[in-house]
Amino acid sequence: FFILMASFGELAKQDPKVEETPKADAENVVEEESTATFEPKVQLAEVDVVNGEEDEEIMFQIRAKLFVFGETMLDKGTGNKTWRERGVGDVKLLKHKEFGKIRLLMRQDKTMKVIVNHVVDPRITLEPNAGSDKSWVWSAFDFSEGELEETVFAMRFGDAEKAGNFKKEFEKAKEHMAKELAGDDTEDTGAGDEAAEALKGLSTGKKEGEEDDTKKEGEE
Q1: What's residue 78's pLDDT?
Q2: Which of 137, 96, 86 shows the shortest CA–CA distance to 116?
Q3: Which residue intervals of 1-146 are DSSP H helices?
Q4: Is pLDDT at 156 greater than 90 in this prediction?
Q5: Mean per-residue pLDDT for 93-100?
Q6: Residue 170, exposed/middle/buried by CB under 10 A (0-12, 13-18, 19+)?
Q7: DSSP label at 7?
Q8: What DSSP string describes 166-218?
Q9: Quick one: residue 112, left, alpha or beta (phi over 0 = left, psi -120 to 50 = alpha)?
Q10: CA angle, residues 81, 84, 85, in degrees to nearest 5
């Protein structure tokens, strides 16, 4: 028994023999490159992304955070209105290359969802928000949800300088739109004269001396 234990002890002390690849043979080993090819199961074709801004040029662009004043989903129909954040992203003043009209457009970061989209109406007035020098409040007929809805907005910028730049460019856009609308009225003068001639022989059904309470567009 002791003789066997001694024999095992001697074997344990010996270094195990490891067959090594000769150096020369190792240097001659060439790695084989895989020539297998894998075809995708679904072929995806390139698609041109259309965002509706292709016919417009960017007059001004800046980052901001947008808020709206209105009812939440839970308060729908209650009349309880509060300020809520709509998103952060780049707000743009876009001018149509053919018609010259300017609109305000803002998309939410990452999702690119439109969160404000309205024409720059010359009657819009930017008011300071709670006395802050880096945010503005205004109301407009917004089309971001697919239908016109009068909405009260608040937009906050990084600092007072950026807020001032936005207002400066917005006022320029208002001046441009006022001229565009005045030009449209001038161009429509001929058609208006023809319409007036056609209406001479028509009666409104009102008695003589009774005032017409229909308001002309733009008198409100």
Answers
A1: 81
A2: 86
A3: 2-13, 23-27
A4: yes
A5: 96
A6: buried
A7: H
A8: HHHHHHHHHHHHHHHHHHHHHHTHHHHHHHHHHHTT---SPPTTPPP-PPPTT
A9: left
A10: 160
| 144 Cβ contact list (under 8 Å, min separation 6) | 114, 115, 116, 117, 118
pLDDT, one tens digit per residue, over 68-83 is 998 877 777 787 889 9
Question: b/e map of 191-212 (b: 16 or more CB within 10 Å)?
Answer: eeeeeeeeeeeeeeeeeeeeee
- C-alpha 154 chain-centroid distance: 16
Hunting for tokens 């800046």 — which residue is that?
62
Q: Which of the four pLDDT bands, split at 50, 70 and 90, describes residue 23?
A: low
The 3-state DSSP class for residue 48 equals: coil
pTM for the predicted model, two decimal places: 0.63
Question: Which neighbouring-strand residues pair with 70?
Answer: 82
Q: Give start and end residues of each alpha helix (H) in the chain.
A: 2-13, 23-27, 160-187, 189-199
Q: How far is CA 27 from CA 18, 32, 150, in A?
A: 19, 14, 79
